[in-house]
Amino acid sequence: MMDATPAGSAGTTGPGAGLIDPPAFQPGAPDFAQRVRDSFNRQAFMTTLGVRLVDVAPGRCDLAMPHRADLCQQNGFLHAGVTAALADSAAGYAAYTVMPANSDVLSIEFKHNLLAPAVGERFLARGQVQRAGRTIVVVQATVVAETGEQRKTVALMQATMMRVQADAATG
């Protein structure tokens, strides 16, 4: 879906190798992808926004949504609250991929940087785990606006997610 490789980072075998590439993660459970899909399908807010789960891999989650005028602010840009929700869900589900089967995930903190007006035909978000502990997972998310073949990064998020017991999340 999105090429997260920064320009000029090809061939990362010399000095500085691995400084840009995201770390590799093992899934927290063999059925991690189905667990993410099932949880995502229960997210009424993501359904309301028209967000689709595009791809999921250990430590990564990609989401997409079409432009909708009813989700824009007064200047016609996608509302910052929508980009934050999109980034937060991508980050949360990326974290969820590395958690054990008896887990659920909750956001406990995030910083959302708006880099450019969110104008596009479609919006893509990628959550990428940076560090996974037993309880806390640090994730970065990128939101990109897409128009035709053109893509522009419009928001970045640094987030902290917490693992909770699956039955404790609702109580």
How is the topology of this model organized?
Blueprint: H1 32-41, H2 44-49, E1 52-57, E2 60-66, H3 80-96, E3 103-114, E4 122-132, E5 136-147, E6 150-165
Antiparallel strand pairs: 1-2, 2-4, 3-6, 4-5, 5-6
Quickly list its features.
globular; Thiol Ester Dehydrase, Chain A; six-stranded antiparallel β-sheet; 171 residues; alpha+beta; 37% strand; disordered N terminus
Write up this protein:
- With 171 residues, the protein is an alpha+beta fold.
- Helices cover 19% and strands 37% of the residues.
- It has three helices and six strands, in the order H-H-E-E-H-E-E-E-E.
- It has helices at 32-41, 44-49, 80-96; strands at 52-57, 60-66, 103-114, 122-132, 136-147, 150-165.
- Strands 1-2-4-5-6-3 form a six-stranded antiparallel beta sheet.
- The N and C termini lie far apart (36 Å).
- Residues 1-12 have low confidence and may be disordered.
